[in-house]
């Protein structure tokens, strides 16, 4: 009898360990590369507050959407809501995170008095993210068109995959100016020359949100993360990063 009880206890203990392990499964979060700083800060704060371990994936949204469709391993996407709503994915909800801001930045040793100065001869190389794959590339293209600058800058444009790539070119001085999001450059200080915000009337609103994938098997972790995003701590992190 004692042997049976011991065996039963061992089985129950094993089942309990498996249950705890399942509940502690990592949460996988994917976001546009331009939001690496705030998303990383949110993930660290979530874990410190007792949330599960969070794995992070960053890149241009075109690549991330393809990965989300093909792998089934992503639990939550963070990006521009309207862009993601048209991506052919099914989401189980949406948590608003704030509004993104398009800026034009430039390297040390240079200066722009106004965003329209990107059309001046002194700006020989102008970088921007790919409009087809990155929301800030799309916003930059909209701005150039609405501001009547599209033709004036066509021959000087350097189109790259992500916002951080543009920022890297600005920091290295390989371009004279570049379009990025405020979040990526606001804390760079003397690493760049400066930046100016673009009139929001000249590009579509950028509504950043966290969208859980409907086919995710990590429902409890998603619920916990969504609840954390509503806390004052999370909102302060987003505010700190310009959202």
From TrEMBL:
GO terms for molecular function: metal ion binding; molybdate ion binding. Coiled coil: none annotated. The keyword Cytoplasm does not apply. Pfam families: SBP_bac_11. GO terms for biological process: molybdate ion transport. Gene3D superfamilies: Periplasmic binding protein-like II. Keywords: Metal-binding, Molybdenum, Signal. Residues 1-24 form the signal peptide. The keyword Mitochondrion does not apply. Molybdate binds at residue 163. NCBIfam families: modA (TIGR01256). PANTHER family: MOLYBDATE-BINDING PERIPLASMIC PROTEIN, TUNGSTATE_MOLYBDATE_CHROMATE-BINDING PROTEIN MODA. Belongs to the bacterial solute-binding protein ModA family. This is Molybdenum ABC transporter, periplasmic molybdate-binding protein. It comes from Solidesulfovibrio magneticus str. Maddingley MBC34.
């Amino acid at each position: 009898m004692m042997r049976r009880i011991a065996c039963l206890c061992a089985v129950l203990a094993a089942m309990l360990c498996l249950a705890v392990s399942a509940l502690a499964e990592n949460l996988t979060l994917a976001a546009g590369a331009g939001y690496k700083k705030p998303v990383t800060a949110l993930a660290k704060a979530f874990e410190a507050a007792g949330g599960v371990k969070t794995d992070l994936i960053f890149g241009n949204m075109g690549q991330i959407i393809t990965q989300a469709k093909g792998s089934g391993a992503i639990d939550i996407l963070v990006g521009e809501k309207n862009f993601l709503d048209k991506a052919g994915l099914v989401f189980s909800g949406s948590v608003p995170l704030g509004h993104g801001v398009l800026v034009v930045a430039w390297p040390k040793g240079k200066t722009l008095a106004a965003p329209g100065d990107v059309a001046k001869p002194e700006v020989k190389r102008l970088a921007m993210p790919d409009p087809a794959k990155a929301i800030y590339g799309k916003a930059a293209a909209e701005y150039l068109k609405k501001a009547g600058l599209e033709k004036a800058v066509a021959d000087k444009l350097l189109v790259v995959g992500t916002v951080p790539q543009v920022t890297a070119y600005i920091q290295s001085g390989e371009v004279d100016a570049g379009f990025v999001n405020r979040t990526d450059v606001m804390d760079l200080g003397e690493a760049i020359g400066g930046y100016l915000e673009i009139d929001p009337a000249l590009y579509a609103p950028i509504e950043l949100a966290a969208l859980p994938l409907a086919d995710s098997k990590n429902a409890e972790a998603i619920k916990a993360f969504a609840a954390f995003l509503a806390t004052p701590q999370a909102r302060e992190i987003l505010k700190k990063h310009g959202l």
